[in-house]
Specification:
Elements (H helix, E strand, L loop, with lengths): L1 E8 L5 H11 L3 E5 L28 H13 L22 E7 L14 E6 L2 H9 L11 H19 L6 E4 L4 H20 L1
Parallel strand pairs: 1-3, 1-4, 2-3, 4-5
Helix pairs in contact: 1-5
Family: Belongs to the uridine kinase family. NRK subfamily.
Catalytic activity: beta-nicotinamide D-riboside + ATP = beta-nicotinamide D-ribonucleotide + ADP + H(+); beta-D-ribosylnicotinate + ATP = nicotinate beta-D-ribonucleotide + ADP + H(+)
Organism: Neopipo cinnamomea
């Protein structure tokens, strides 16, 4: 059996760190990252203000990402996922493969929406998000006003779309909480879901 979960987040919300820590704790677990599917800078649209529109689905090779996810689901054992169980895992977990897909624009893309067993969304308030963004180095680098002019408005747009979709079941996580708290909560939640699958 395959269990797929998504970790979606505002920029610098902590999704990649959370996904990597979960992978170490969960049995037969693999990660696919949306960041690996960005188009080269020359193919990313520029708006009238000169901002490169990276925080939009058009900036990504989403077809390639969907194909990779489907291929993984069809044959998780051939994906290179480590099948040795963590010492804390029970014997009856060995037959379930877990895929974590992490990114920032996952729930607004229709071809992916029926794949998930569980959806998580990490949120941050404006000031904390801007502070964290300012500590990161991006290629290409953020231009002046880019966060306020493109990144934050796009986050709010997609988050509002998500909240308006009543059929979308999402677990919202407070990104200001410690990594330990977030990890503990999500791990427990996943284990509950895996137990339901086995029933």
């Amino acid at each position: 059996e395959v269990f797929t979960m998504f970790s979606n987040s505002v920029t610098n919300g902590g999704k990649t760190t959370l996904a990597e820590k979960l992978k170490k704790m969960l049995p037969s677990c693999d990660i696919i990252s949306q960041d690996d599917f960005f188009k080269p800078e020359s193919e990313v649209e520029t708006d009238e203000r000169g901002f490169k529109l990276y925080d939009a689905l058009d900036a990504l090779y989403m077809d390639e990402m969907v194909t990779k996810i489907h291929n993984w689901i069809k044959s998780p054992a051939s994906s290179g996922v480590v099948t040795e169980e963590p010492q804390t895992a029970c014997d009856n977990q060995k037959s379930i493969y877990i895929l974590i897909v992490e990114g920032f624009l996952l729930y607004n893309y229709e071809p992916l929406n029926k794949l998930w067993n569980r959806r998580y969304f990490l949120t941050l308030p404006y000031e904390e998000c801007k502070r964290r963004r300012s500590t990161r180095v991006y290629q290409p680098a953020d231009t002046p006003g880019y966060f306020d002019g493109h990144v934050w408005p796009m986050y709010l747009k997609y988050k509002n779309e998500l909240e308006e979709n009543a059929s979308m079941q999402v677990v919202y996580l407070d990104g200001t909480k410690s990594q330990e708290e977030l990890l503990s909560y999500v791990y427990s939640d996943i284990m509950q879901e895996l137990n339901k699958l086995r029933e």
